[in-house]
Amino acid sequence: MDEQFPHNGVAAYIALGSNMGNREQLLLSAISLIDEHPSIKVNRVSGLYETDPVGYTEQPPFLNMVLAVQSTLSPIELLRQLLAFEQQLGRVRQIRWGPRTIDLDLLLYDNVRMDQEELTLPHPRMMERAFVLVPLHDVLDQSHLLQQEVGAASEAALLDGKEGITLWKTINWRSASEPFES
């Protein structure tokens, strides 16, 4: 573990998406894998939103959500772990923005800003995507630097009907080992 990261971890936000197979079950499996990792704790989960595909549109609709987590992994270590979880859940990368069993994107990591080949933080396209902004707004800490910007963009996206996003279901997911924190 990198010494600059505190032992109790830092807040990070992860976007999840699926449009192949049992979408809801794949998202729940991803949450479990993430939370079972000894260096990651899921604190909050957004609602599940059904969204029209963006970019490559000849594919089924997605279910999208965002997790608020606490992690002692560095940003790159967390990204690599998310990619390993994708592989475990059958992710195959064939068509850019194409159909997928699971997509796990690191959106924010504390207030870290970085631009490297492997990882850019904050996620470079998150402010353009209602399927990220709306569920992120559900779980973003009220004191986060981007709270106002995300809130305003999320509301605008819902009002405009942008990207065909609708609340599909709320889930009452909780870590089995810890009481739920709001």
TrEMBL record:
GO terms for biological process: folic acid biosynthetic process; tetrahydrofolate biosynthetic process. Keywords: ATP-binding, Folate biosynthesis, Kinase, Nucleotide-binding, Transferase. It catalyses: 6-hydroxymethyl-7,8-dihydropterin + ATP = (7,8-dihydropterin-6-yl)methyl diphosphate + AMP + H(+). It comes from the Bacteria. The keyword Transferase applies. It holds the Pfam family HPPK. GO terms for molecular function: 2-amino-4-hydroxy-6-hydroxymethyldihydropteridine diphosphokinase activity; ATP binding; kinase activity. Pathway: Cofactor biosynthesis; tetrahydrofolate biosynthesis; 2-amino-4-hydroxy-6-hydroxymethyl-7,8-dihydropteridine diphosphate from 7,8-dihydroneopterin triphosphate: step 4/4. Residues 96-107 form the 7,8-dihydro-6-hydroxymethylpterin-pyrophosphokinase domain. Its EC number is 2.7.6.3. PANTHER family: 2-AMINO-4-HYDROXY-6-HYDROXYMETHYLDIHYDROPTERIDINE PYROPHOSPHOKINASE. This is 2-amino-4-hydroxy-6-hydroxymethyldihydropteridine diphosphokinase. It comes from Paenibacillus endophyticus. The lineage of its organism: Bacteria, Bacillati, Bacillota, Bacilli, Bacillales.
